[in-house]
Amino acid sequence: MIVQVRRVRRLRPRRLVPLAASRRLRRYYAAARRQWRRSLQFRVVGITLLLSAILVSAFGYTVASLISQGVLRTQVDTSKERILRGAREAAKKLEGYTQADDPGLPGQVRVVATDLSRSMDVPDSEVIILRRNSLAEASPDTSAAAVMRQAPMRKLRESVVGDRPGTYQQIETLDVGQGPTRYLVMGTPIVTGGEPLELYYLLPLKAENELVEFVALVVTVTGIALVALLALIAATMTRLVVKPVRVAARTAQRLSAGLLDQRMQVKGEDDLARLAAAFNQMAANLQRQIVRLEEMSRLQRRFTSDVSHELRTPLTTVRMAADLLFASRDDFDPAAARSAELLQAELDRFEDLLTDLLEISRFDAGFAALDAEPTDLVPIVRRVAERLESLAERCGVPLRVDAPEDGAIAEVDPRRVERVLRNLLGNAIEHGEGKPVVVTLAIDEAAAAVTVRDHGVGLKTGEEKLVFNRFWRADPSRARQTGGTGLGLSISLEDARLHGGWLEAWGAPGKGAQFRLTLPVRSGDRLVSSPLRLVPDDARADEAALIGETP
């Protein structure tokens, strides 16, 4: 038990540290990505920083390479002259030794190598003279000659002992007793009357390496400073351009929020100043136009409300006279009796129109109030169906209601819900073409929905949005059976919105239409879904069958 606990305590930091680092990196990446999408200045500075870093890096690499090659070329040229001069001196001093087995040759070779080494003006340089009998049997004449037996030097020695005389060089990192150091190794044959010899100069490149490193450091520091300066310049210049754009965006947001007196500050006479002046002119024009439209809308709403109220008095008088004529129609001749009936019907429609206009004016003025209370929707649906049953019989439309038996309780305004259902069901009966109309009620934990399905002429593509417009009719030549005012669906849509609900329509030519009312169970809740589908199941089945038949 104790061992297991200790293991867990040991492993936990090892697992959490990479995980925390990964989360931190993801958080930084997400923040940078969000800033990249939202900030134009951040994108411009980032792109400038990247491109300038690439450009400065390429320029610095080129400069460092050119300086390094120039310094190395100078050292190679100087070393060629030095080794050729040493080869001539060594050839003179070894001119008398013509036999390979001359016992004095090894000593004289060491003396010549020592003299050449002393005459070198390069610190820590080495001079090596090797006998050319064979590469495998070449005996070193100094302690530093052992490096020439190593594999990296084999190619250079093969070039020196070749048929073409000349000087050859190779740059290699060698250890001749002072640690690994870069050397310029120069080699050339020594031409004597006896055994051919090989002369090698090992010249350290410490000074050259230090110069190259210093140049690289200067170029790097200069490049970093230049990139930072370019980024600072880009940020400053971008800010000069982005700041007015940000001010314009904030001003536009305030204008869209209703603060129509907001304006941009105009400074100078440049392009940005002209942009600010044009923006202010546009805002002023919009303000004047919006104020004008608001005044016209207010006057229109007031006119509609005043006319509707003023028409109440003469309508009441006309209603009294029409009721008297309608009650006495049996005493009139057939033509006068028919006129009295038509007058009564048109007065009913006119009174309904005034009522709807008053309701619309209340919605437009924002005076409509919701009296929500817990209500069982099942009796409302059945009551609406019963009241319109006589109309359905007169139109020859079978009417069916599908509602849950245990009730459907929701916080709604029953008067407004009943008016919506009355409008939907009346339209369905009018356009049902003698085919069944089905009213379906369903409820879940969050929403209650009612669908009204008819199988009449249906709706064309795009008309599912137009049906809620005021006074819109799909077929103007079609005679109304219910004497509607053309405002029913518009009022129904406003009633649904007042509840925080949805009123939607679906239709297809020849397949009928379906309207769906969705209301939240608790008043004030936000709707996310509906317990009933907008597209009826039979239409979905027909579409699926059509797709299956398509090759």
From TrEMBL:
Name the domain of life this protein comes from: Bacteria
Q: Which InterPro entries match?
A: HAMP_dom, HATPase_C_sf, HATPase_dom, His_kinase_dom, HisK_dim/P_dom, HisK_dim/P_sf, MtrAB_MtrB, Sig_transdc_His_kin-like_C
- Quote the EC number: 2.7.13.3
Task: Specify the HAMP domain's residue ranges.
Answer: 239-291
GO molecular function terms listed in the Swiss-Prot or TrEMBL record: ATP binding; phosphorelay sensor kinase activity
Q: Which residues cross the membrane?
A: 214-236
Q: Which Gene3D superfamilies match?
A: 1.10.287.130, 6.10.340.10, Histidine kinase-like ATPase, C-terminal domain (3.30.565.10)
Q: Which reaction does it catalyse?
A: ATP + protein L-histidine = ADP + protein N-phospho-L-histidine
SMART domains, alphabetized:
HAMP, HATPase_c, HisKA
Question: Can you say where in the cell this protein is located?
Answer: Cell membrane
Please give, as recorded in its UniProt entry, the membrane topology of this protein. Multi-pass membrane protein
Taking every annotated instance into account, which residue ranges of this chain make up the domain Histidine kinase? 306-523
UniProt keyword annotations, A-Z: ATP-binding, Cell membrane, Kinase, Membrane, Nucleotide-binding, Phosphoprotein, Transferase, Transmembrane, Transmembrane helix, Two-component regulatory system
Q: Look at the named UniProt entry and state the broad enzyme category this protein falls under.
A: transferase
GO cellular component annotations of the record: plasma membrane
**PANTHER family documented for this protein:** HYBRID SIGNAL TRANSDUCTION HISTIDINE KINASE C, TWO-COMPONENT HISTIDINE KINASE
Q: What is this protein called?
A: Sensor histidine kinase MtrB
Taxonomic source organism: Dactylosporangium aurantiacum
Task: Provide the taxonomic classification.
Answer: Bacteria, Bacillati, Actinomycetota, Actinomycetes, Micromonosporales
